[in-house]
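User: Batch of two.

Assistant: Item 1 of 2:
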Amino acid sequence: MSETMRAWQATAYGPTKDALSLATIPRPVPGPGELRLRVQAASLNPIDYKLVHGALRRVQPLSFPVSIGFDASGIVDAVGAGVTAFRVGDPVFVRASRDTLGAFAEYSVQPERFVAHRPANIDAIGAASLPLVALTTVQGLVDRAQVHAGERILIHAGSGGLGSFAIQYAKALGMIVETTTSSRNAEWVQALGADRVICYDRDDLRARGAIYDVVFDTLGGAHTLEAFELLKSGGAVVSVAGPPDREMAARFAGSFVVKLAMRWMARKVYAAANRKQARYFRYLTESSGAQLAHIAAMVELGTVHPVVDRVFDFEQGLAAFDYLEAGRAKGKVVLKMRG
């Protein structure tokens, strides 16, 4: 077996078409508590190109050259000492951490605790589409907002990779699910389980009033502040794109100046939250094999399912990023390996 492999790497901050290239690098070897998977498929997420663009350099700086990619599915081909839950030949899926980036590669080494067995009823492409969006949803709605059946949730961008999973998951929890999308995607997101679709090119979202127990803000910008206008008193805004909350600022900020800047960015959000006696959560997703196993069980029961828009060959990584960054994907964009 070759001691090298191919991997998509960033060599500098910048546009993906300039910063990314397919490199030949040493094939990694698993250490204690780690396993190596032969990657069969890997999915793209907006955070991948945001990292390359440098949008997150304050909270997650990169050291170049760096392999990229969070989501992968494949076959275990080597295990390190102490690994007990997996054996060579097991089909698995994983969400890499910020310290173990490199899913867009022929092989990936990950800690055992990040990995879960692949759901038996889906293929590698479907499994690769799930980890980041599933973990982001669980950690936002359950771990932070602590949602309950019967509550009304607004999920922004329901046709995107995150939104299309969050609709299914919130519905499985017994929530009343409303989502935003374009009118051309309205029937599509309704088929995912949305109880009501608000078309941003046709409907007035603010006319709905302050009726939501939870707003899942996947867009950021003006949408984060607007979320509090739509929220019931005592509700929760869960954001993956808004200003940092206090926990995130304390965890990732470095210098006093950076911390001060983060507090300044969040001041309007916290003022809006205080007016509504609301909770605000802005977080970065953490890797968890245990939570992926929970998602795998739901997939096997048919409660949730992968939503894949388009599949590209591994060598077409730049074309895949171009497609994702255009902002029109319905569901996830996936890279597949040959063979």
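Item 2 of 2:
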Amino acid sequence: MLVRPLTPADATLYRALRLRALREHPDAFTSSWEEDRDQPLEAAAARLAKHAFWGGYQGSELYGIVGLERESRAKNRHKATVVGMYVAPEAAGQGVGRALMEALLAHARAVGVQSLVLTVTDGNPAATRLYESVGFRSFGVEPDAIRVDGRSYAKNHMHLDLGHAP
């Protein structure tokens, strides 16, 4: 498995895997398949250009994705949010998620991010275990965070201090 940064040239594969994730696991993401489906390919390319994303490849096939969106305002530029983590079921259990997170964490440290946050849908133990294994800790659960087909889902808010205290 090769993990590498994604660029706008990867937009087609990235968009296809992201749409698959949103369609197959709508409760795992705040974005919806319907909203992202209607966005042009250029929107995916622009997202890859603006933020740091990684892909987990086996040959030419993309099986996993994750992104890091850094805050842009001066007062909170020390923070970033982990977004869009997804590993295709056929690649589950092969260390793709861990490799993606390790690449993201190495990049975050290298660019001076001091505080990482993410959310994970309550009831997703595999994702929660992965995040905890790399140091994330829960700081609260938001009830009724998203609704999918009329059903309410809570989101577990997690934080990782990268140890770059001012």
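The CA atoms of residues 27 and 126 lie 14 Å apart.
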